[in-house]
Write a structure and sequence with these properties.
399 residues; alpha/beta; Alpha-D-Glucose-1,6-Bisphosphate, Chain A, domain 3; TATA-Binding Protein; 3 domains; 6-stranded antiparallel beta sheet
Length: 399
């Protein structure tokens, strides 16, 4: 796991960081606290949530996406004056965090924001170290799902590396990693599992596809291919290094995120879900799916729909030219730059909606005033778009 560190010396500057960690009654407590302490961080756990317990007695849901799951950790952080709260879900494949802003208030940051910060830091550091260069950057790749923020596409584009979107589900990122391995020469494949991280990096940067980072909006991240699924153990290490980097520059992580926004553009994602329970609900979900496919909107909230992608019927190829499997998902791209997508949940009686908006600097990075204005305009734009989508859902179901 420690191989995930890019700049171990930076940890010395972050050694004073105090971290509250919660395993949410799951398996994250096996490695994460001891790893953080070994790296020099001051790590304290939430005692009531240390013990593995499938009843999850202290939370409504042991899901680090939900603010309520981090409440006990945040309360302890306030008591102890800690800088960061980190929580992992029961099987320790997803991670959520709360960080202090300049005013000293603990704030939650989203899975899209966490992933974008770590993706930017790893790409930027690899370039600064000379690991990725102008000569080999065509071999570097960032992987993400289609419903994950396009900020990561913008970051990859700015550095000249490939960004490939996959369908929802981390298994598709894992499949890409297998594809990259199998594209290498046979003699390398035969000894692949015996190669060190450095050797794997070198071979991919000269003749393959070097995996820099992968993530999805639902709080799953991956920084190396020795685990080919989202992994919160590794995410905790990567995030701790990121926090140490910010501290070395006397920045909060909120301020570091604003630096990223100022350079690459402000991107906002709003995720909504509507529950339709029972047999009647299943019928409504199917009616919505059919309605969008047969009668896609031509305008939304006053903006014309520029294009539509139906992943269940269209032949859609990813950035590497691979034909994607069919999936029940549709994207609607508006002429004003906003986008929304929808798909039925594969595990719950819900329709999921994803709304995307952004403002990008025209020439120079946003200054503080421009960034504040971009945030306001994008935030309002997505609020209005959801109002329109919600009304459109009712109209479709009542037609």
């Amino acid at each position: 796991m420690k191989d995930l560190l890019l700049e171990p010396t930076i940890l010395e500057k972050g050694a004073s960081l105090k971290i509250i960690f919660s395993a949410l009654h799951g398996t994250g407590g096996v490695f994460c606290p001891s790893l953080l302490r070994d790296l020099g961080f001051q790590c304290q756990t939430v005692p009531e949530q240390d013990e593995p317990d499938g009843r999850f007695p202290t939370v409504e849901s042991p899901n680090p996406e939900n603010a309520s799951a981090l409440k006990m950790g945040m309360d302890l952080a306030e008591k102890e004056g800690a800088d960061i709260v980190i929580a992992t879900d029961p099987d320790c494949d997803r991670m959520g965090v709360a960080v202090r802003n300049r005013a000293g208030k603990l704030v939650l940051i989203t899975g899209n924001q966490i992933g974008s910060l770590m993706a930017w830091y790893r790409i930027d550091t690899f370039f600064k170290q000379g690991v990725i260069t102008d000569a080999n950057r065509d071999h570097a790749v960032l992987l993400k799902t289609f419903v994950t923020t396009d900020l990561q596409n913008a970051i990859a584009d700015a550095y000249g590396i490939r960004c490939t979107d996959t369908l929802t589900g981390f298994k598709y990122i894992g499949q890409k990693l297998l594809k990259y391995e199998q594209a290498l020469r046979r003699e390398i494949q035969e000894n692949y599992s015996d190669l060190t991280e450095q050797e794997i990096r070198d071979v991919h940067l000269t003749q393959g596809s070097f995996f820099v980072f992968g993530g999805e909006e639902s709080y799953g991240y991956l920084g190396s291919e020795f685990v080919r699924d989202k992994d919160a153990n590794g995410a905790v290490i990567m995030f701790a290094e990121l926090a140490a980097y910010a501290k070395s520059r006397d920045l909060t992580l909120v301020e570091l995120l604003d630096e990223v926004y100022a350079r690459f553009g402000y991107f906002l994602e709003v995720n909504k879900s509507l529950e339709f329970a029972g047999a009647e609900g299943a019928t409504k979900i199917q009616r919505l799916v059919s309605s969008y496919a047969l009668h896609p909107p031509t305008e939304a909230d006053g903006a014309s729909v520029r294009s539509v992608r139906n992943f269940s019927s269209d032949d859609i190829y990813d950035a590497e030219g691979d034909l994607l499997p069919k999936e029940n998902m549709m994207f609607f791209y508006l002429a004003d730059g906003r986008t929304f997508a929808c798909r039925p949940s594969g595990t719950e009686p819900k329709m999921k909606y994803y709304l995307f908006g952004n403002r990008r600097p025209q020439v120079d990075p946003f200054n503080a005033e421009q960034l504040a204005d971009a945030k306001e305009q994008v935030d309002k734009g997505l609020d209005k778009l959801w109002e329109w989508v919600r009304a459109d859902i009712d109209a479709r179901l009542n037609a």
